[in-house]
Amino acid sequence: MENILSKANPVKSTLILVLMLCIYVASSSEAAYAPGVPDPLFGLNETAPTWPDGWPSSSVVNHYYIDNNHVQATDTGNTYGFPDKPRLTIPEIEYPEGAYIEIHNGPYDGGGQVILSANGTKNLPVWVRGVSDADRATITGEVILKGRYIILENLHFRDTGRLGLRSHNSSSLSNAIIRNSEFSGSNINVGNSAAIGVSGQSSSNRFNHIVIYNNHIHDLGDYLSSSENDFHGIAVVTNADHVWVLDNHVYHMAGDSIQIGTASTANENRVSHIYVSGNTFHEDRENAVDIKESDNVVISSNTLWGYKHTSSSSGEVLVIHNEADNIWVINNTVYNGNYGLLTSGSTNTWFIGNLIYNIHHDPEMPWDASSGYSSGTAIHFRGNSDGGVVNNTIFGYDNGIQLTQGNGVGYSIYNNILSERVEPDGVDIRSPNSTVSDSMAMDNNIIYHSTSSPAIYWEGYIFSVNEFKNTYEICNNCVSSDPFFVDQTAIDLSIKPYSIEANITSPAMNTGVLHPAYSTFDSIFGESILFDMTGRAKPSGKSMEIGSFEIVAPSPPDNVSVIRSN
Protein backbone atom coordinates (compact mmCIF):
# COMPACT_ATOMS: atom_id res chain seq x y z
CA MET A 1 0.00 0.00 0.00
CA GLU A 2 1.27 3.47 -0.80
CA ASN A 3 1.69 5.49 2.35
CA ILE A 4 -0.32 8.44 1.08
CA LEU A 5 -1.06 10.15 4.34
CA SER A 6 2.45 11.43 4.93
CA LYS A 7 2.99 12.61 1.37
CA ALA A 8 -0.29 13.93 0.00
CA ASN A 9 -1.40 17.55 -0.09
CA PRO A 10 -3.09 18.27 3.30
CA VAL A 11 -6.29 19.63 1.74
CA LYS A 12 -6.58 16.66 -0.60
CA SER A 13 -5.84 14.30 2.28
CA THR A 14 -8.70 15.79 4.30
CA LEU A 15 -11.11 15.38 1.39
CA ILE A 16 -9.96 11.80 0.87
CA LEU A 17 -10.49 10.97 4.55
CA VAL A 18 -13.97 12.47 4.62
CA LEU A 19 -14.93 10.50 1.50
CA MET A 20 -13.51 7.30 3.01
CA LEU A 21 -15.53 7.82 6.19
CA CYS A 22 -18.73 8.21 4.19
CA ILE A 23 -17.97 5.01 2.29
CA TYR A 24 -17.36 3.12 5.56
CA VAL A 25 -20.59 4.27 7.14
CA ALA A 26 -22.55 3.25 4.04
CA SER A 27 -20.88 -0.16 3.68
CA SER A 28 -20.67 -1.27 7.31
CA SER A 29 -21.88 -4.87 7.54
CA GLU A 30 -25.12 -5.46 9.42
CA ALA A 31 -24.35 -9.17 9.80
CA ALA A 32 -20.81 -8.99 11.21
CA TYR A 33 -19.98 -11.38 14.04
CA ALA A 34 -17.11 -9.13 15.18
CA PRO A 35 -15.08 -6.37 13.52
CA GLY A 36 -13.89 -7.86 10.24
CA VAL A 37 -15.63 -11.21 10.80
CA PRO A 38 -18.78 -11.98 8.79
CA ASP A 39 -21.53 -13.99 10.42
CA PRO A 40 -21.26 -17.62 9.21
CA LEU A 41 -25.08 -17.61 8.77
CA PHE A 42 -25.38 -21.30 9.66
CA GLY A 43 -24.48 -23.24 12.78
CA LEU A 44 -24.51 -20.82 15.69
CA ASN A 45 -28.19 -20.48 16.49
CA GLU A 46 -29.83 -23.67 15.21
CA THR A 47 -31.74 -25.55 17.91
CA ALA A 48 -31.80 -29.33 18.02
CA PRO A 49 -35.18 -30.95 17.40
CA THR A 50 -37.17 -32.32 20.32
CA TRP A 51 -37.68 -36.04 20.82
CA PRO A 52 -39.89 -37.56 18.13
CA ASP A 53 -43.28 -39.09 18.74
CA GLY A 54 -42.67 -42.76 19.53
CA TRP A 55 -39.77 -42.24 21.92
CA PRO A 56 -38.99 -43.48 24.51
CA SER A 57 -40.77 -46.80 23.88
CA SER A 58 -40.34 -47.45 20.13
CA SER A 59 -37.96 -46.76 17.27
CA VAL A 60 -38.43 -43.91 14.80
CA VAL A 61 -37.01 -43.87 11.27
CA ASN A 62 -33.80 -41.82 10.94
CA HIS A 63 -33.71 -41.12 14.68
CA TYR A 64 -30.84 -42.94 16.39
CA TYR A 65 -30.41 -43.43 20.12
CA ILE A 66 -27.07 -44.81 21.36
CA ASP A 67 -26.18 -45.69 24.96
CA ASN A 68 -23.58 -48.42 25.47
CA ASN A 69 -24.10 -48.38 29.25
CA HIS A 70 -27.81 -49.25 29.10
CA VAL A 71 -28.69 -52.80 30.23
CA GLN A 72 -31.02 -53.28 27.23
CA ALA A 73 -28.57 -51.91 24.64
CA THR A 74 -28.03 -54.05 21.53
CA ASP A 75 -27.26 -53.64 17.83
CA THR A 76 -28.98 -56.91 16.91
CA GLY A 77 -32.22 -56.24 15.06
CA ASN A 78 -32.06 -52.68 16.35
CA THR A 79 -31.35 -50.37 13.40
CA TYR A 80 -32.16 -47.09 15.14
CA GLY A 81 -32.36 -47.71 18.85
CA PHE A 82 -34.63 -45.79 21.19
CA PRO A 83 -34.41 -44.72 24.85
CA ASP A 84 -35.85 -47.95 26.26
CA LYS A 85 -33.67 -50.09 23.98
CA PRO A 86 -30.60 -48.18 22.73
CA ARG A 87 -27.96 -49.20 20.25
CA LEU A 88 -24.50 -50.14 21.52
CA THR A 89 -22.53 -48.42 18.73
CA ILE A 90 -22.79 -45.39 16.47
CA PRO A 91 -23.85 -46.46 12.96
CA GLU A 92 -21.20 -45.61 10.35
CA ILE A 93 -23.53 -44.86 7.45
CA GLU A 94 -24.60 -41.98 5.23
CA TYR A 95 -27.30 -40.15 7.13
CA PRO A 96 -30.09 -38.49 5.15
CA GLU A 97 -31.26 -34.92 5.67
CA GLY A 98 -32.86 -34.34 9.04
CA ALA A 99 -31.35 -37.46 10.66
CA TYR A 100 -30.97 -37.21 14.43
CA ILE A 101 -28.28 -39.15 16.37
CA GLU A 102 -28.34 -38.83 20.16
CA ILE A 103 -25.37 -40.36 22.00
CA HIS A 104 -25.14 -41.12 25.73
CA ASN A 105 -22.41 -42.20 28.13
CA GLY A 106 -19.54 -44.05 26.38
CA PRO A 107 -16.70 -44.21 25.76
CA TYR A 108 -16.98 -44.91 22.03
CA ASP A 109 -13.94 -45.57 19.86
CA GLY A 110 -15.30 -47.45 16.83
CA GLY A 111 -12.22 -49.66 16.86
CA GLY A 112 -10.09 -46.52 16.44
CA GLN A 113 -12.29 -44.57 14.01
CA VAL A 114 -15.92 -43.56 13.73
CA ILE A 115 -16.74 -42.39 10.20
CA LEU A 116 -19.94 -40.36 9.83
CA SER A 117 -21.36 -39.21 6.50
CA ALA A 118 -24.11 -36.60 6.24
CA ASN A 119 -26.37 -35.61 3.38
CA GLY A 120 -28.07 -32.75 5.20
CA THR A 121 -29.48 -29.45 4.01
CA LYS A 122 -29.52 -26.02 5.61
CA ASN A 123 -33.14 -26.45 6.72
CA LEU A 124 -32.74 -30.13 7.63
CA PRO A 125 -29.18 -30.69 8.85
CA VAL A 126 -27.91 -33.95 10.31
CA TRP A 127 -27.57 -33.78 14.10
CA VAL A 128 -24.91 -35.76 16.03
CA ARG A 129 -25.06 -34.85 19.68
CA GLY A 130 -24.84 -35.56 23.34
CA VAL A 131 -27.73 -34.49 25.52
CA SER A 132 -26.36 -31.16 26.80
CA ASP A 133 -23.24 -29.31 27.92
CA ALA A 134 -23.63 -30.97 31.30
CA ASP A 135 -24.27 -34.46 29.90
CA ARG A 136 -21.75 -35.11 27.16
CA ALA A 137 -21.11 -38.53 25.65
CA THR A 138 -17.44 -39.61 25.66
CA ILE A 139 -15.47 -40.37 22.49
CA THR A 140 -12.02 -41.99 22.62
CA GLY A 141 -11.51 -42.74 18.92
CA GLU A 142 -11.06 -40.45 15.93
CA VAL A 143 -14.32 -39.19 14.43
CA ILE A 144 -14.16 -38.38 10.71
CA LEU A 145 -16.94 -36.28 9.19
CA LYS A 146 -17.99 -36.40 5.55
CA GLY A 147 -20.66 -34.71 3.50
CA ARG A 148 -22.58 -31.53 4.14
CA TYR A 149 -24.76 -29.73 6.66
CA ILE A 150 -23.91 -31.58 9.83
CA ILE A 151 -24.03 -30.23 13.40
CA LEU A 152 -21.95 -32.03 16.02
CA GLU A 153 -22.39 -30.89 19.62
CA ASN A 154 -22.20 -31.80 23.32
CA LEU A 155 -19.54 -34.49 23.02
CA HIS A 156 -16.41 -35.07 25.09
CA PHE A 157 -13.39 -36.20 23.08
CA ARG A 158 -11.07 -37.59 25.75
CA ASP A 159 -7.38 -38.54 25.58
CA THR A 160 -7.07 -40.35 22.21
CA GLY A 161 -10.39 -38.97 20.99
CA ARG A 162 -10.10 -36.31 18.31
CA LEU A 163 -12.00 -34.91 15.35
CA GLY A 164 -10.62 -35.36 11.85
CA LEU A 165 -12.17 -32.99 9.34
CA ARG A 166 -10.10 -34.59 6.61
CA SER A 167 -10.68 -36.39 3.38
CA HIS A 168 -11.34 -40.13 3.64
CA ASN A 169 -11.58 -42.06 0.37
CA SER A 170 -11.81 -38.74 -1.53
CA SER A 171 -14.66 -37.46 0.65
CA SER A 172 -15.64 -33.79 0.79
CA LEU A 173 -16.97 -31.63 3.62
CA SER A 174 -18.96 -28.41 3.74
CA ASN A 175 -21.16 -26.63 6.27
CA ALA A 176 -19.94 -28.66 9.23
CA ILE A 177 -20.52 -27.21 12.70
CA ILE A 178 -18.53 -28.32 15.76
CA ARG A 179 -19.88 -26.70 18.90
CA ASN A 180 -20.31 -26.92 22.68
CA SER A 181 -17.92 -29.85 23.06
CA GLU A 182 -14.84 -30.64 25.10
CA PHE A 183 -11.49 -32.04 23.98
CA SER A 184 -9.20 -33.00 26.86
CA GLY A 185 -6.07 -34.98 27.59
CA SER A 186 -3.79 -35.91 30.45
CA ASN A 187 -0.70 -33.85 29.57
CA ILE A 188 1.03 -36.91 28.10
CA ASN A 189 3.32 -36.72 25.06
CA VAL A 190 1.38 -38.63 22.40
CA GLY A 191 3.07 -37.18 19.31
CA ASN A 192 2.03 -34.56 16.79
CA SER A 193 -1.67 -34.06 16.14
CA ALA A 194 -4.60 -31.72 16.76
CA ALA A 195 -7.82 -31.99 18.73
CA ILE A 196 -9.64 -30.64 15.66
CA GLY A 197 -7.81 -30.89 12.34
CA VAL A 198 -9.13 -29.39 9.10
CA SER A 199 -7.54 -30.53 5.83
CA GLY A 200 -9.27 -30.86 2.47
CA GLN A 201 -8.20 -33.36 -0.13
CA SER A 202 -6.95 -31.12 -2.97
CA SER A 203 -7.34 -27.78 -4.70
CA SER A 204 -10.37 -29.21 -6.51
CA ASN A 205 -11.87 -30.68 -3.33
CA ARG A 206 -11.50 -27.94 -0.75
CA PHE A 207 -13.42 -28.17 2.50
CA ASN A 208 -15.45 -25.03 3.16
CA HIS A 209 -17.85 -23.27 5.49
CA ILE A 210 -16.77 -24.97 8.69
CA VAL A 211 -17.56 -23.46 12.09
CA ILE A 212 -15.73 -24.41 15.30
CA TYR A 213 -17.71 -22.71 18.05
CA ASN A 214 -17.71 -22.57 21.86
CA ASN A 215 -15.54 -25.61 22.51
CA HIS A 216 -13.27 -26.27 25.50
CA ILE A 217 -9.91 -27.72 24.41
CA HIS A 218 -7.10 -28.36 26.86
CA ASP A 219 -4.21 -30.47 28.18
CA LEU A 220 -3.45 -32.46 25.02
CA GLY A 221 0.20 -33.39 24.68
CA ASP A 222 2.77 -32.42 27.27
CA TYR A 223 2.91 -28.62 27.32
CA LEU A 224 5.57 -28.70 30.08
CA SER A 225 7.91 -31.02 28.18
CA SER A 226 11.46 -29.91 27.40
CA SER A 227 11.14 -31.45 23.94
CA GLU A 228 8.81 -30.60 21.06
CA ASN A 229 5.55 -32.54 20.83
CA ASP A 230 3.37 -30.54 18.46
CA PHE A 231 -0.18 -31.26 19.59
CA HIS A 232 -2.42 -28.32 18.64
CA GLY A 233 -5.87 -27.38 19.79
CA ILE A 234 -7.13 -26.51 16.30
CA ALA A 235 -5.23 -26.89 13.03
CA VAL A 236 -6.59 -25.54 9.73
CA VAL A 237 -3.74 -26.56 7.48
CA THR A 238 -4.52 -27.15 3.82
CA ASN A 239 -7.21 -27.03 1.10
CA ALA A 240 -9.84 -25.28 3.21
CA ASP A 241 -11.57 -21.93 3.00
CA HIS A 242 -14.23 -20.03 4.91
CA VAL A 243 -13.50 -21.50 8.31
CA TRP A 244 -14.73 -19.77 11.47
CA VAL A 245 -13.09 -20.42 14.86
CA LEU A 246 -15.30 -18.59 17.37
CA ASP A 247 -15.54 -18.31 21.17
CA ASN A 248 -13.41 -21.33 22.03
CA HIS A 249 -11.30 -21.70 25.17
CA VAL A 250 -7.99 -23.43 24.42
CA TYR A 251 -5.02 -23.83 26.75
CA HIS A 252 -2.19 -26.10 27.94
CA MET A 253 -1.61 -27.56 24.49
CA ALA A 254 1.78 -29.03 23.61
CA GLY A 255 1.77 -27.05 20.37
CA ASP A 256 -0.38 -24.03 19.55
CA SER A 257 -3.93 -23.14 20.47
CA ILE A 258 -4.45 -22.76 16.72
CA GLN A 259 -2.20 -23.29 13.72
CA ILE A 260 -3.34 -21.84 10.40
CA GLY A 261 -1.67 -23.11 7.23
CA THR A 262 1.44 -25.21 6.97
CA ALA A 263 4.92 -24.74 5.56
CA SER A 264 5.92 -25.72 2.01
CA THR A 265 2.38 -25.65 0.63
CA ALA A 266 1.65 -25.11 -3.07
CA ASN A 267 -0.23 -21.85 -3.69
CA GLU A 268 -3.39 -23.63 -4.82
CA ASN A 269 -3.48 -25.64 -1.56
CA ARG A 270 -3.13 -22.70 0.86
CA VAL A 271 -6.01 -22.11 3.25
CA SER A 272 -7.95 -18.88 2.79
CA HIS A 273 -10.62 -16.78 4.52
CA ILE A 274 -9.99 -18.07 8.01
CA TYR A 275 -11.73 -16.08 10.75
CA VAL A 276 -10.62 -16.43 14.38
CA SER A 277 -12.66 -14.36 16.84
CA GLY A 278 -13.84 -14.22 20.44
CA ASN A 279 -11.51 -16.97 21.61
CA THR A 280 -9.40 -17.20 24.75
CA PHE A 281 -6.05 -18.91 24.08
CA HIS A 282 -3.38 -19.16 26.76
CA GLU A 283 -0.34 -20.94 28.22
CA ASP A 284 0.50 -23.43 25.50
CA ARG A 285 3.98 -24.77 24.89
CA GLU A 286 4.41 -22.77 21.67
CA ASN A 287 1.99 -20.03 20.55
CA ALA A 288 -1.58 -18.91 20.89
CA VAL A 289 -1.80 -18.34 17.12
CA ASP A 290 0.72 -19.66 14.58
CA ILE A 291 0.04 -18.57 10.99
CA LYS A 292 2.03 -20.24 8.22
CA GLU A 293 1.43 -20.36 4.45
CA SER A 294 -2.11 -19.01 4.10
CA ASP A 295 -4.10 -16.13 2.63
CA ASN A 296 -6.83 -13.78 3.87
CA VAL A 297 -6.74 -14.47 7.59
CA VAL A 298 -8.56 -12.34 10.18
CA ILE A 299 -7.66 -12.62 13.88
CA SER A 300 -10.18 -10.36 15.63
CA SER A 301 -11.25 -9.67 19.21
CA ASN A 302 -9.49 -12.55 20.96
CA THR A 303 -7.74 -12.71 24.34
CA LEU A 304 -4.26 -14.22 24.02
CA TRP A 305 -1.80 -14.55 26.90
CA GLY A 306 0.91 -16.48 28.72
CA TYR A 307 3.78 -17.56 26.38
CA LYS A 308 7.46 -18.03 27.08
CA HIS A 309 10.58 -19.39 25.44
CA THR A 310 10.84 -23.17 24.89
CA SER A 311 13.07 -25.35 22.73
CA SER A 312 10.69 -24.91 19.77
CA SER A 313 9.31 -21.40 20.36
CA SER A 314 10.69 -17.95 21.15
CA GLY A 315 7.66 -17.19 23.31
CA GLU A 316 5.59 -15.31 20.71
CA VAL A 317 1.95 -14.88 21.62
CA LEU A 318 1.08 -14.62 17.90
CA VAL A 319 3.55 -15.47 15.15
CA ILE A 320 3.38 -15.35 11.34
CA HIS A 321 5.76 -17.25 9.04
CA ASN A 322 6.30 -18.62 5.54
CA GLU A 323 5.16 -15.72 3.35
CA ALA A 324 1.58 -15.67 4.54
CA ASP A 325 -0.38 -12.95 2.74
CA ASN A 326 -3.17 -10.56 3.69
CA ILE A 327 -3.12 -11.16 7.43
CA TRP A 328 -5.15 -8.86 9.70
CA VAL A 329 -4.78 -8.89 13.49
CA ILE A 330 -7.52 -6.62 14.87
CA ASN A 331 -8.71 -5.56 18.33
CA ASN A 332 -7.09 -8.39 20.30
CA THR A 333 -5.93 -8.28 23.91
CA VAL A 334 -2.37 -9.67 24.02
CA TYR A 335 -0.27 -9.93 27.16
CA ASN A 336 2.36 -11.84 29.15
CA GLY A 337 4.69 -13.07 26.43
CA ASN A 338 8.34 -12.85 25.39
CA TYR A 339 7.06 -11.36 22.13
CA GLY A 340 3.62 -9.95 21.45
CA LEU A 341 2.89 -9.99 17.70
CA LEU A 342 5.69 -11.14 15.37
CA THR A 343 6.02 -11.77 11.66
CA SER A 344 9.16 -13.36 10.31
CA GLY A 345 8.02 -12.90 6.72
CA SER A 346 4.55 -12.01 5.44
CA THR A 347 3.00 -9.51 3.06
CA ASN A 348 0.13 -7.09 3.57
CA THR A 349 0.16 -7.77 7.30
CA TRP A 350 -1.67 -5.34 9.56
CA PHE A 351 -1.82 -5.05 13.34
CA ILE A 352 -4.77 -2.74 14.07
CA GLY A 353 -6.51 -1.72 17.29
CA ASN A 354 -4.82 -4.22 19.59
CA LEU A 355 -4.14 -3.80 23.31
CA ILE A 356 -0.69 -5.24 24.08
CA TYR A 357 0.94 -5.21 27.50
CA ASN A 358 3.47 -6.92 29.79
CA ILE A 359 5.78 -8.12 27.01
CA HIS A 360 9.21 -8.88 28.45
CA HIS A 361 12.28 -10.94 27.62
CA ASP A 362 12.90 -14.17 29.50
CA PRO A 363 15.16 -13.25 32.45
CA GLU A 364 16.81 -16.67 32.18
CA MET A 365 17.85 -16.06 28.56
CA PRO A 366 20.58 -13.74 27.20
CA TRP A 367 19.18 -10.37 26.15
CA ASP A 368 20.81 -7.80 23.88
CA ALA A 369 19.02 -4.45 23.91
CA SER A 370 20.98 -3.29 20.85
CA SER A 371 19.72 -6.13 18.66
CA GLY A 372 16.80 -5.65 16.28
CA TYR A 373 15.79 -9.22 17.07
CA SER A 374 15.74 -8.94 20.85
CA SER A 375 12.78 -10.40 22.70
CA GLY A 376 10.57 -8.42 25.03
CA THR A 377 9.18 -6.75 21.89
CA ALA A 378 5.50 -5.90 21.51
CA ILE A 379 5.37 -5.86 17.67
CA HIS A 380 8.14 -7.17 15.42
CA PHE A 381 8.48 -7.24 11.62
CA ARG A 382 11.33 -8.88 9.73
CA GLY A 383 11.99 -10.87 6.58
CA ASN A 384 10.14 -10.17 3.35
CA SER A 385 7.41 -8.21 5.11
CA ASP A 386 5.22 -5.18 4.62
CA GLY A 387 2.08 -3.76 6.22
CA GLY A 388 1.68 -1.67 9.30
CA VAL A 389 0.79 -0.88 12.89
CA VAL A 390 -2.30 1.30 13.36
CA ASN A 391 -4.31 2.37 16.43
CA ASN A 392 -2.69 0.01 18.94
CA THR A 393 -2.11 0.66 22.64
CA ILE A 394 1.20 -0.82 23.81
CA PHE A 395 2.04 -0.69 27.51
CA GLY A 396 4.72 -2.13 29.81
CA TYR A 397 7.28 -3.62 27.39
CA ASP A 398 11.03 -3.91 26.86
CA ASN A 399 10.92 -2.86 23.20
CA GLY A 400 7.94 -1.37 21.40
CA ILE A 401 7.84 -1.72 17.60
CA GLN A 402 10.81 -3.34 15.83
CA LEU A 403 11.09 -2.98 12.04
CA THR A 404 14.19 -5.03 11.43
CA GLN A 405 13.75 -5.85 7.74
CA GLY A 406 11.28 -5.25 4.94
CA ASN A 407 10.69 -5.81 1.25
CA GLY A 408 10.87 -2.16 0.21
CA VAL A 409 7.10 -1.71 -0.08
CA GLY A 410 7.12 -0.02 3.30
CA TYR A 411 5.52 0.11 6.71
CA SER A 412 2.85 2.42 8.12
CA ILE A 413 3.02 3.36 11.82
CA TYR A 414 0.02 5.54 12.75
CA ASN A 415 -2.20 6.40 15.72
CA ASN A 416 -0.40 4.22 18.30
CA ILE A 417 0.17 4.81 22.01
CA LEU A 418 3.42 3.40 23.41
CA SER A 419 3.75 3.89 27.15
CA GLU A 420 5.81 2.83 30.16
CA ARG A 421 8.71 1.00 28.56
CA VAL A 422 10.35 -1.05 31.31
CA GLU A 423 13.91 -1.55 30.01
CA PRO A 424 15.93 1.71 30.02
CA ASP A 425 18.12 0.36 27.21
CA GLY A 426 15.15 -0.69 25.09
CA VAL A 427 13.59 1.47 22.38
CA ASP A 428 10.05 2.42 21.48
CA ILE A 429 10.32 2.36 17.68
CA ARG A 430 13.24 0.87 15.77
CA SER A 431 14.20 1.40 12.13
CA PRO A 432 17.66 0.01 11.44
CA ASN A 433 18.62 1.42 8.05
CA SER A 434 17.60 3.53 5.08
CA THR A 435 16.10 0.51 3.29
CA VAL A 436 13.39 0.42 5.94
CA SER A 437 13.29 4.12 6.81
CA ASP A 438 12.97 5.53 3.31
CA SER A 439 9.78 3.62 2.57
CA MET A 440 8.17 4.15 5.97
CA ALA A 441 5.24 6.44 6.79
CA MET A 442 4.87 7.30 10.47
CA ASP A 443 2.81 9.91 12.27
CA ASN A 444 0.22 10.70 14.95
CA ASN A 445 1.78 8.45 17.60
CA ILE A 446 2.05 9.11 21.35
CA ILE A 447 5.18 7.88 23.15
CA TYR A 448 5.08 8.59 26.86
CA HIS A 449 6.86 7.27 29.95
CA SER A 450 6.34 8.69 33.40
CA THR A 451 9.90 8.03 34.61
CA SER A 452 12.06 7.94 31.47
CA SER A 453 12.42 9.48 28.03
CA PRO A 454 11.03 8.10 24.76
CA ALA A 455 13.61 6.51 22.48
CA ILE A 456 13.32 6.23 18.69
CA TYR A 457 16.16 4.22 17.15
CA TRP A 458 16.73 5.46 13.62
CA GLU A 459 19.57 4.16 11.46
CA GLY A 460 21.99 3.72 14.34
CA TYR A 461 21.06 6.73 16.47
CA ILE A 462 18.59 7.24 19.31
CA PHE A 463 16.34 10.29 19.36
CA SER A 464 13.72 11.76 21.63
CA VAL A 465 10.40 12.53 19.96
CA ASN A 466 11.22 16.22 19.52
CA GLU A 467 14.77 15.48 18.34
CA PHE A 468 13.40 13.05 15.81
CA LYS A 469 10.81 15.49 14.51
CA ASN A 470 13.44 18.20 14.13
CA THR A 471 15.79 15.88 12.26
CA TYR A 472 13.46 14.09 9.85
CA GLU A 473 10.35 15.01 7.89
CA ILE A 474 8.09 12.35 9.34
CA CYS A 475 6.23 11.94 12.65
CA ASN A 476 5.53 15.68 12.74
CA ASN A 477 2.34 15.07 14.74
CA CYS A 478 3.91 12.63 17.18
CA VAL A 479 3.98 13.74 20.82
CA SER A 480 5.41 12.61 24.16
CA SER A 481 2.53 13.69 26.38
CA ASP A 482 0.58 11.71 28.97
CA PRO A 483 -2.39 10.04 27.21
CA PHE A 484 -4.41 9.95 30.49
CA PHE A 485 -5.15 6.26 30.95
CA VAL A 486 -8.18 5.62 33.14
CA ASP A 487 -6.26 3.32 35.53
CA GLN A 488 -2.98 1.92 34.31
CA THR A 489 -2.38 0.10 37.61
CA ALA A 490 -5.50 -1.98 36.93
CA ILE A 491 -4.63 -2.16 33.21
CA ASP A 492 -7.63 -0.08 32.26
CA LEU A 493 -5.92 1.58 29.31
CA SER A 494 -8.95 3.33 27.94
CA ILE A 495 -8.52 7.11 27.86
CA LYS A 496 -9.95 9.89 30.00
CA PRO A 497 -10.95 12.76 27.72
CA TYR A 498 -9.75 15.38 30.14
CA SER A 499 -7.29 15.83 32.98
CA ILE A 500 -8.70 17.97 35.75
CA GLU A 501 -5.27 18.19 37.36
CA ALA A 502 -3.53 19.40 34.20
CA ASN A 503 -6.58 21.28 32.89
CA ILE A 504 -6.07 19.89 29.37
CA THR A 505 -7.71 17.35 27.10
CA SER A 506 -6.02 14.04 26.30
CA PRO A 507 -3.52 14.26 23.42
CA ALA A 508 -5.17 11.08 22.09
CA MET A 509 -8.57 12.74 21.63
CA ASN A 510 -9.51 13.60 18.01
CA THR A 511 -5.86 13.71 16.96
CA GLY A 512 -5.55 10.55 14.86
CA VAL A 513 -6.07 10.05 11.14
CA LEU A 514 -8.34 7.68 9.27
CA HIS A 515 -5.72 5.40 7.80
CA PRO A 516 -6.27 3.85 4.32
CA ALA A 517 -5.84 0.37 5.80
CA TYR A 518 -9.43 0.55 7.01
CA SER A 519 -10.78 0.97 3.48
CA THR A 520 -8.37 -1.66 2.15
CA PHE A 521 -9.83 -4.23 4.52
CA ASP A 522 -13.37 -3.30 3.51
CA SER A 523 -12.54 -3.67 -0.17
CA ILE A 524 -11.05 -7.15 0.37
CA PHE A 525 -13.50 -8.67 2.84
CA GLY A 526 -16.65 -6.56 2.46
CA GLU A 527 -16.66 -5.83 6.20
CA SER A 528 -15.92 -2.72 8.23
CA ILE A 529 -13.30 -2.75 10.98
CA LEU A 530 -14.07 0.80 12.09
CA PHE A 531 -14.78 -0.26 15.68
CA ASP A 532 -12.67 -0.08 18.81
CA MET A 533 -12.10 -2.90 21.29
CA THR A 534 -15.38 -2.23 23.06
CA GLY A 535 -17.40 -2.33 19.83
CA ARG A 536 -17.77 1.44 19.69
CA ALA A 537 -17.85 2.81 16.13
CA LYS A 538 -14.95 5.06 15.21
CA PRO A 539 -14.41 7.85 14.85
CA SER A 540 -16.84 8.69 17.61
CA GLY A 541 -15.92 12.38 17.60
CA LYS A 542 -14.61 14.85 15.09
CA SER A 543 -11.78 12.53 14.01
CA MET A 544 -10.00 9.31 14.95
CA GLU A 545 -8.55 8.82 18.40
CA ILE A 546 -5.00 7.62 18.96
CA GLY A 547 -4.74 4.15 20.51
CA SER A 548 -7.07 1.17 20.59
CA PHE A 549 -9.98 2.84 22.42
CA GLU A 550 -12.37 5.54 21.31
CA ILE A 551 -12.79 8.17 24.00
CA VAL A 552 -16.16 8.52 25.69
CA ALA A 553 -16.79 12.16 26.44
CA PRO A 554 -18.84 12.72 29.63
CA SER A 555 -22.53 13.43 29.10
CA PRO A 556 -23.78 16.86 30.15
CA PRO A 557 -25.75 16.92 33.41
CA ASP A 558 -29.53 16.61 33.16
CA ASN A 559 -30.41 19.31 35.67
CA VAL A 560 -28.50 22.32 34.35
CA SER A 561 -30.30 25.65 34.82
CA VAL A 562 -29.28 29.19 33.99
CA ILE A 563 -29.77 31.92 36.63
CA ARG A 564 -29.77 35.44 35.35
CA SER A 565 -28.67 38.21 37.66
CA ASN A 566 -29.94 41.78 37.41
Name of the CATH first level:
Mainly Beta
Q: Look up the CATH topology.
A: Pectate Lyase C-like
- Cα gyration radius (Å): 26 Å
CATH architectural grouping: 3 Solenoid
The tally of domains stands at 1
Helix % is: under 10%
Strand content: 35-45%
Summarize the structure.
The chain is mostly beta strands. It contains four helices and 47 strands.
Indicate the topology:
Elements lengths: L9 H18 L4 E3 L2 E2 L14 E4 L6 E5 L26 E3 L3 E5 L8 E7 L6 E4 L7 E3 L2 E12 L1 E4 L3 E5 L6 E7 L2 E3 L8 E7 L7 E7 L2 E3 L12 E8 L1 E7 L2 E3 L6 E3 L10 E7 L2 E3 L6 E3 L2 E7 L2 E5 L8 E5 L3 E7 L2 E5 L1 E5 L2 E7 L2 E5 L17 E5 L5 E4 L2 E5 L1 E5 L7 E4 L2 E3 L9 E3 L2 H4 L3 E3 L2 E3 L7 E3 L2 E3 L1 H7 L13 E3 L4 E4 L2 E2 L4 E2 L11 H9 L41
Parallel strand pairs: 4-6, 5-7, 6-8, 7-10, 8-10, 9-11, 10-12, 10-13, 11-14, 12-15, 13-16, 14-17, 15-18, 16-19, 17-20, 18-21, 19-22, 20-23, 21-24, 22-25, 23-26, 24-27, 25-28, 26-29, 27-30, 28-31, 29-32, 30-33, 31-34, 32-35, 33-36, 34-37, 35-38, 36-39, 37-40, 38-41, 39-42
Antiparallel strand pairs: 1-2, 42-43, 44-45, 46-47
